[in-house]
Amino acid sequence: MRGKLIVLDGPDGGGKTTQIQLLREALEREGWKVLTVREPGGTRVGERVRAILLDPALGEMGRRTELFLYMACRAQLVEERLAPAMDRGEVVLCDRFLSSSVVYQGIAGGLGMEEVIRVGEFCVGGVRPDLTVILDVDVETGTARRGARKADRVEAQAREYQEEVRLGFLALARSQPDRVRVVDARADAAQVQAAIWGLVKKIL
User: Residue 122, CB half-sphere, CA atoms under 13 Å: how many?
Assistant: First the structure.
């Protein structure tokens, strides 16, 4: 049986890292073998590109450059880790995926949703999430959750851009209601996990 790809995405501060760990534990209790990965990164090649993408000293990076660096990371991740794991029947939990590029570079970045999807589909070679969960959180809450940690290059961008990112994720969910679902991430971790698990059980 082919495995599943479940993506957790959304604005910064939504708690993706925490929720992926909780979801992994829930799946393993049900007997599933689980692989967790993050974007950008997840491979030796990808982690090196991640360092460039998130470097706050590189504020001059253009949107197209940014897009293709993310896509390079993604292509390597799919080929090296995601596709083989799914072929083995595993559940793959991915912290961000193509949905992030559609929103950050396509919608908020102005490159166009359809253009980014077209490039992305070539890069992922037919691998599509069975479910994408958007952990929705407003900019104020997301910023507060970051606390004193220094913002990376993406987090440091203007508030207007961050607002567009949030609206972009909600627009993406409305455009693909069968595959992309929204969970209010302002609730406590247990409530958010319960909502995610309710969605995940439907596609297993």
Answer: 8
CB 132 within 8 A of CB 181: yes
Q: Residue 28 carries which side chain, given as an amino acid letter?
A: E
Evaluated on CA atoms 141, 190, 195, 93, the torsion sign reads positive
Q: pTM of the entire structure?
A: 0.94
Q: Where are the beta strands (DSSP E) in 91-174?
A: 91-95, 131-136
From first to last of its 204 residues, what are the pLDDT tens digits of the chain? 789 999 999 999 999 999 999 999 999 999 999 999 999 999 999 999 999 999 999 999 999 999 999 999 999 999 999 999 999 999 999 999 999 999 999 999 999 999 999 999 999 998 999 999 999 999 999 888 877 678 888 888 888 999 999 999 999 999 999 999 999 999 999 999 999 999 999 999
Pairing state between β 91-95 and 4-9: parallel
